[in-house]
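Handout, section B. The chain below has 178 residues.
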Amino acid sequence: MTGIDRRDVLTGLAVASALTATAAKAQAQSNAPQQSRALDLKALKKDTDIACVYHCDFGDASRVGQMITNIDNHLSVYDYDPFKAKIVVVAHGAGIKPFLDNLEGTPWAKDAPAPALIERFQGLSKMGVEVYLCQITFKRNKIDTAKARTDDFIKTVPSGVAALAELQAKGFGYIKVG
């Protein structure tokens, strides 16, 4: 091999440019406002044999923590393999609290934040767990959707209860921690 060919340089530049564009797009999507990560109910689908939706309409941190523990236990039986089991959490009402950057200007402004909950959800997201937040909750409580965390596993749906029904109709088992 005698040296670098001009074609090799141009190919390298093209590949580098494509990688940079892809990285920029991924960064833009992760910084995108929650509204742009809205899911249409028709887009919800079951793609594993075992699929469950956990219903979260409560804001009590200990109850949310118990739900997270249950999800972790649930996934452990399937070796934390997202190809064996799919878990979705649908949150509406006070259930959106752990997924907000802060509680200022919300009905829960006087509640103590619980940062450990989002950290636990972030861990579960590595096993494919997704969270769907109810857009009606934001609208009715006059909460800016920009308050929602921008983690990739968090999406919005038009209605939490409609998403629950849609997922159940598509074969997801329903679980509510009480």
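Note. The helical segments are 6-30, 61-77, 115-125, 135-140, 160-169. Compare this with the example in section A.
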